[in-house]
Design brief:
The complex is a heterodimer of chains A (134) and B (134).
Chain A (H helix, E strand, L loop, with lengths): L1 H5 L1 H31 L3 H9 L2 H17 L3 H31 L10 H19 L2
Helix pairs in contact in A: 2-4, 5-6
Chain B lengths: L1 H5 L1 H31 L4 H27 L3 H31 L10 H19 L2
Helix pairs in contact in B: 2-3, 4-5
């Protein structure tokens, strides 16, 4: 984590990324609470379902800003590579799960889990890549 | 499609990516046929369900190879940005759809459609980025 503290672009990235992820969790909890408490219908319910997408778009925009601001090509490539691995993992997982859902009575995968799982895989990939390039 | 003709790395990417997509289209047909004909169970069934994902993982590795091989920084950035938009698109779609599935009577989208949706989002983003910077 040393390089993260030293690099201004990475520092700004973390300063934007962490509050946005916190906002995502807070929005999720709020939507869950609101829907169960108020039982909205129609446009309000649709709006509530769309609300968690706002921090998701924010997170992706933050990643884009980091890639534009980061001068260290190694760190930039590290993030791109880790996102590609995260993408590969989540696409592989959803495809395998999707086929298993078609052919077997497996537990149904909730699509909203794609976002947190993508970042879990990305974090694992960052760790593995940093270890490799150490 | 001019960039494919101009850049050797893009040409190589295209030559690797298209067969993978053909494999991705054909393997599920083969898997479906084997499952319906032989009714496998246990590890064999799970292995067959995992088979289409191999084409996806290889296709994403091809994207990584292209990013590493592309010497034109403008084209590389364009491609990375389009992947980011593709990721954003698919994460937003799955999150919103996921919440709609929980709270409303909306139909379930088969998980196997997530990868084609990602490719659509990426392709639209690539076209839009190229159009914007024309």
């Amino acid at each position: 984590m040393n390089c993260l503290q030293k690099n201004p672009a990475t520092r700004r990235y973390l300063q934007r990324f962490i509050p946005t992820m916190v906002a995502y969790v807070v929005v999720l909890l709020f939507v869950e609470w609101f829907v169960h408490r108020v039982h909205p219908t129609g446009a309000l319910l649709d709006g509530m379902a769309v609300l968690p997408a706002v921090p998701i778009i924010g997170v992706i925009a933050i990643v884009g800003m980091y890639l534009a601001e980061e001068k260290d090509e190694f760190l930039r490539n590290l993030l791109i590579q880790s996102m590609l691995w995260g993408l590969g993992a989540i696409m592989a997982l959803t495809t395998v799960w999707g086929f298993l859902q078609i052919f077997t009575p497996i537990h149904r995968f909730q699509p909203f889990m794609t976002f947190p799982l993508f970042w879990c895989f990305q974090a694992i990939a960052v760790g593995a890549l940093q270890r490799k390039y150490r | 499609m001019g960039w494919i003709r101009k850049s050797p790395a893009a040409r190589r990417y295209f030559l690797r990516f298209v067969p993978m997509m053909a494999a991705y289209a054909l393997i599920p047909l083969f898997v479906g046929w084997v499952i319906h004909r032989f009714h496998p169970s246990g590890a064999l069934l799970y292995g067959l369900a995992a088979l289409p994902a191999t084409a996806i993982v290889v296709a994403i590795v091809c994207s990584g190879i292209y990013i590493a091989e592309e010497t034109d920084e403008y084209q590389r950035n364009l491609f990375v940005q389009s992947i980011l938009w593709g990721v954003a698109g698919i994460l937003v779609i799955t999150s919103v759809w996921g919440w709609f599935q929980i709270y409303t009577q909306i139909c379930n989208v088969p998980l196997v459609w997530i990868f084609p949706f990602f490719l659509c989002c990426q392709f639209i983003a690539l076209a839009a980025l190229k159009w914007r910077r024309r």
